[in-house]
Amino acid sequence: MKHLQILGTGCAKCNLLAERTQQAAEAMGVEHTLEKVTDMRKIMAMGVMSTPALAVDGVVKVSGKVPDVETLKSLIGG
Amino acid sequence: MGATSDHPVVARVRPLPWAIALGLAWWGLYRSLEPMSRWLTHHAMGLPADSHLGQAVAFFIYETPKVLLLLTIVVFVVGMIRSFFTPERTRALLAGRRESVGNVLAAGLGVATPFCSCSAVPLFIGFVSAGVPLGVTLSFLIAAPMVNEIALGLLLSLFGWKIAAIYLGTGLTIAIVAGWVIGRMKMERFIEDWVRAAPVAPSPGVTDQPTPRSGAPSSGDEMTPTPGTAWADRLADGRAAVVDIVGRVWIFVVLGIAVGAGIHGYVPQDFLAAVMGRGAWWSVPVAVVLGVPMYSNAAGIVPVVQALVAKGAALGTVLAFMMSVIALSLPEAILLRKVLRPTLLATFFAVVATGILATGYLFNAIL
After folding, report:
1. A52 contacts on B by Cβ (under 8 Å)
2. What is the ipTM of this complex?
3. Which of the residues of A are catalytic?
4. Between helices B52-82 and B15-38, what is the axis angle to 10°?
5. How many CB pairs under 8 A join A and B?
6. Best mutation site among B118, B124, B223, B244 for testing chain A: the one with the most A CBs within 10 Å?
7. What are B127-185's pLDDT values in tens digits?
8. Is B177 helix (H, G, I), strand (E, B) or coil?
9. In this structure, are residues B126 and B87 in contact, taking their beta carbons and an 8 Å threshold?
10. A34 to chain B, closest Cα gap in Å
11. What global pTM score does this model have?
């Protein structure tokens, strides 16, 4: 079970990242939960300065950009 | 999972020959725009060259593909340059700087560092909590919208290097001076309390590396990319920037050119000299005030600027208008209100607006 978190205050790019992450996780067939973290305090506490960001099991994998689905697959990992 | 097999197609083909081929195609297309647009307007559509409509349509048909082609090149180059900068690296460079040097450095980095306007707030908190002085942080946050890299590239290609240098120079000066002034005013107490109270974890190292590609290890393994791979990644970053930015702003460009075409075809020559000319001292503040509620992408405003200048508007007035539209925006004010108390927010906007006014007057006086 992977815990995927999308960090961002709800701008268009954050939604795009959430969408693509969902696609990537489904394509890989991994069991996962997807959570949107919009509270600025929580985002800061995770050390993220540029949104949107993706964290997998609490580890920030990418921030400040929206990678393509293929890249996201490798970031989510097997 | 195979390391290379799931690369997207474009990343797998040899990037350099592709870049050269695309560059040549770009050049050929660009060179044929003028004869093609003239033929389309005056022969295919039968509009006389001296009619209002003919002039407006010719302007639109010529300028739209031209500006879009220029925009593509500009965004590509900017995307490549920006892949060398990240907000995290910039913060590390700025933390603990003395104010004066810090302001200058912050303004320069503000132009080069890529960040989405929606992350202004986390960026602000991240900088302040890492010990970047408030004034230096604000220099960074002012420079970013003030010197819009796309506007800079378009000014360079449409107006020449002098105007582009003026835009860059004054934008940087405003950011440096405004940040320094606010730093002198010791306004730290006007930052919202929760910003200081927020626990901030150090940023993970992952974002200090170039964009992770599929197959490339992104964390854990320390990866030192070979020069070839790095350049392929930079080219891919440029390409991604084109897809993202041109895909989003083309509509602003088309609308901006449509407005420009209307001005070009229907506004009499030198008509604007009276209202937006050098002689009209009040036109600079009016241009700044008009610019605040207007929201347009930088790429959309430059064609309008071009058409206004051609009709006798003073360059300083028009530059002030452009800077106001791009840099003074209400959505940004609402975002920053989350971290800045009203006094500081108002000071921030007043200082920037004053800088823009000064720019307008200065260039009306010397150009």
Report:
1. 116
2. 0.77
3. 11, 14
4. 170
5. 112
6. B118
7. 888 888 999 999 998 898 888 888 888 888 888 888 889 889 999 999 999 999 988 88
8. helix
9. yes
10. 20
11. 0.77
